[in-house]
Structure formats: structure tokens, C-alpha cells
Amino acid sequence: MKILGLLGGTSWVSTVDYYRFINQEINDKLGGVNAAHLLLHSFNYADIGKHLSVNDWDAVTDMMVKAGKGLRESGAEAIVLCANTMHLIAPAVEREVGLPVIHIAVATAKAINRAGIKTVALLGTRFTMERDFFINKLKDAGIDALLPEKDDRDFIHQTLVEELGKGITKPETKERYLSIIENLRQQGAVGVILGCTEIPLLIQPADTAIIQFDTTRIHSSAAVEFALS
Q1: Which family is this sequence assigned to (predicted)?
Q2: Are 175 and 159 in contact (CB under 8 A)?
Q3: Entry pTM
Q4: Which of 69, 81, 157, 176 is the most buried (most CB within 10 A)?
């Protein structure tokens, strides 16, 4: 089994799910008392958030690369960035750390293609929705992404930072998310990408009339596939 290096704490709430999902799937496949061989560097998200607030991605990249090199030196054979947003800098992390980064958008695009879907809604942080690092991976796979209107994007980003990233779920927030998803469904989305690893804390499969793509689970499965390859 290959050793996976997880860069987490972005947020800790979803990093817990990564740890659980990866270990559960390894055990499902191997049985007995088998579990994943993982190394974890968990950041204090406040240190990252202060850089993101001024759009200083160079500083965030430096943090990720330093931590990634530490995982490599400890034996990691691949890097798992435990957040969609952090994949904005995935190419730099992969290049500087010298290990493959298991890309969340590539894994998600494969899952969408397996489902035979060509048009999806994309929810996530402002960076995930408005920068091209995720959307371009979808385009490469022949998938079109529909985005919420700006006011809705602002609402999603705000609640991810101020609520879901702290493990807080509010009924009124869930109602607004479901309304956003329904609007995008009416525009032609056949599926919805829960493109922030905290969104599945709020939205469950039974909540929507369209197929959900939970990026935390999809990414965890891709990590397991690598570990057992």
C-alpha cells in the first residue's frame, strides 16, 4: 500500500471526513483490520485565511509546499490537498514538492463522465467558482459548468467561511443553497458539484432532484485508488 500525504485543516471539519472516508474504503476493499497508511499535516486555517483575504496566493503556496516537502521526507508517495480551493495551486505544489497531487477536479470529472452527464452546476468558494482551475478540468473532459449569479456566489462563499467551515449548519442557509441549485437545474444542470468539501455537511443526496457529486467522497476514493495501485 502506498503512503498518502494529506494537507488538511482547510478546514479541519472536512479533513475529518477525508480521514474517515479513506480509511473506511481501504478497509472495505482489504477487509480484516486493514486501514490506510496516512501522513497528515493539518494547518491552522486562520494562518491561511489571512493570506486569502488579501489574495496572497504566493504565501499560501509557500505554506503548502513546505508542508508537502515535510510529508515527502516522512515517506509520502502522493499529496492529497484536502480542499477544492487549494487545487488552484496544485500545479505549483506538485512541481515544487516533487510528488503527484491527486487532483480533485480530475477525479470529479471522471465521476461525472461515468454518470453520462454533460452539464452540471458548480458550487464552491469564490475561488473555485470564479477562477478557471476547476472549470478547465471539466472542459477538458467535455463537461459544461453552470455557475450561480454573483449574489448567490457571494452568499455561498460567505457561509462556507463563516458557518460550514466551523461545522455550523443553519436551516435558512440550507434553504438558500437548495434554491440556488434548483435555479441552476432549471437552466439545464443535470447534476450539481458540491465543490467545497464542507457543502456535504449541509446538503444531502435526498435534498435535490438532480444528481449530487460530493467532491470529498470522490477525492477520497481517488486517493484510495492511488494507494492500492
Answers
A1: Belongs to the aspartate/glutamate racemases family.
A2: no
A3: 0.92
A4: 81
